[in-house]
Amino acid sequence: MKREMAPMGNTQILIIENKQAVAEHIENRLKSLGYTVLAVVSCGKEAIQKTEETRPDLVLIDMKLEGDMDGIEVATQMRDRFNIPVVYLTDDADEDLLHRAEITGPFGYMLEPFEERRLHLNIEIALYSHEMERKFREEGQWLSTILKSIGDAVIATDKNGSVKFMNPIA
User: Fold this and answer.
1) pLDDT range class, residue 36, cuts 50, 70, 90
2) Cα angle vertex 168, ends 167, 170, to 5°?
3) How far apart are CA 92 and CA 79, in angstroms?
4) Cα 46–50–56 angle (5° rounding)?
5) SS in 3 state form for the chain?
6) What is the pLDDT of residues 110-123, one digit of tens each?
7) Given this model, what pLDDT does residue 111 score?
8) What's the mean pLDDT in 64-80?
9) Mean pLDDT across the stretch 139-163?
10) Is the peptide bond before 168 cis (omega within 30 degrees of 0)?
C-alpha cells in the first residue's frame, strides 16, 4: 500500500514499548508535538496486529521487547510486510543488539531519556527519508519499464565498462 507523507498534525504513530511509564512519557511528548498516537502496545504479536489494522506512518519500537518477539524481530516484519519506517528506542547501546538492529534498516535510534527536540527531529528525518526512498524506488521502476520497452537496444555500463543494465532487445 502506497502512502504519501502526512503533515505533522496528521502523522500517525504506533508506540511499541513494554515499560508503561516510558510509553506514557513518549505518548505525551508526541501529542504535545502535534502527532497522532494510534496506540501503545507492549508485545510483538499485538504490534503486528495493530499495524495491520491501523497502518501507521511510523513506528517507535523498543529494541528489547519481552515475550514472543523482541523489537528487532518486530521491526523486520514491519519493514517486510508493511514498508513502514521504524525508529528504535533503547536504554542500552549494546553493540550486539545494535548490530542486529542495523540489518533491519531502521530510520533512526533514540537513546533514553528522550528529549522532545531529538524525538521530533528523529521522527521528521525518518518520515522524510522513507518518503525519498519510496520516490526513488518508484522512479527506478518507471525508468526500468521505459528502458525495457524501447524498441532499440539499450546497454548501460558503469565507468569501468561493466554492464549494469541491458534491455531485452539488446
Assistant:
1) very high
2) 70
3) 23
4) 135
5) CCCCCCCHHHCEEEEECCCHHHHHHHHHHHHHCCCEEEEEECCHHHHHHHHHHHCCCEEEEECCCCCCCCHHHHHHHHHHHHCCCEEEEECCCCHHHHHHHHCCCCCEEEECCCCHHHHHHHHHHHHHHHHHHHHHHHHHHHHHHHHHHCCCCCEEECCCCCEEEECCCC
6) 777 778 888 888 88
7) 75
8) 84
9) 80
10) no
Which region, left, alpha or beta, applies to residue 120 given φ > 0 means left and ψ of -120 to 50 means alpha? alpha
For 122, residues 6+ apart whose C-beta sits below 8 A from its C-beta are 87, 108, 109, 110
Question: What are 91-97's contacts with CB under 8 Å, separation 24+?
Answer: 92/64, 97/63, 97/64, 97/72
User: Distance (Å, rounded) from C-alpha 85 to C-alpha 67?
Assistant: 22
Q: Can you read off the three cell numbers belonging to residue 155?
A: 546497454
Place of cell 505525551: 28
Instruction: Decide if pLDDT at 5 tops 50.
Output: no
- 73's grid cell: 524481530
